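Hi R.,

Here's the chain you asked about this morning:
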Amino acid sequence: MPEEKSKIVLLFKEIQYGNKAAFDELFALYYNKVLAFARQYIKQLESAEEVTSELFVRIWLKREGLSKVLNPEVYLYISIKNACLNLIRSDRKRHLLFAEQTAEQSFEHISDKYNFVAEDKELMKLLDLAVAALPRQRKLIFTLIKEHGLKSSDVAKILGISIRTVENQLYKAVKTLADSISGYLGYHPQVKISRKQPLSDLSLFFL
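And here is the predicted structure, written out as tokens:
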């Protein structure tokens, strides 16, 4: 993850000078991530794909101004968030209301990392349902930190909230997930692990 974060800084510098190969690499690295984030706001996949593609087009067309971007990764997420909100404001039709992300989407990136959990379909179903039921902001924070690997400070900038709010919401999200699977496991993950580490670091399932 740190290598990827340093790479995007280099890519932005190369794109600024018209390096098309660098732009293609940026697109390959971040298109799916940015699209997944857009889907948190826009229910219709086609519309989410459209605003995501437009974002990358704008990056290329306005590449001379990339030197002013201090944190390229945060810039991508804030830009797509604003684009989604602008689209929602401009279209009053109900099919563009905030999306409730499906259970399959919620853990599609995480499940690959936790084969021991993914093999237990019932447990994964419980986790999926628990994530899908989280309040929208809490789910966004959980997704950005646990799936996309962003720091709390970056998520705070992206969503325009305080770092403390981010950390509190993440804590509540993980606690909710731990509660949701305690009956199935036969023990509560918080009780089993928190004696040695914070609830927000439940590595057994969520890191």
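One quick note: The chain has two domains: 2-96, 103-201.

Cheers,
M.
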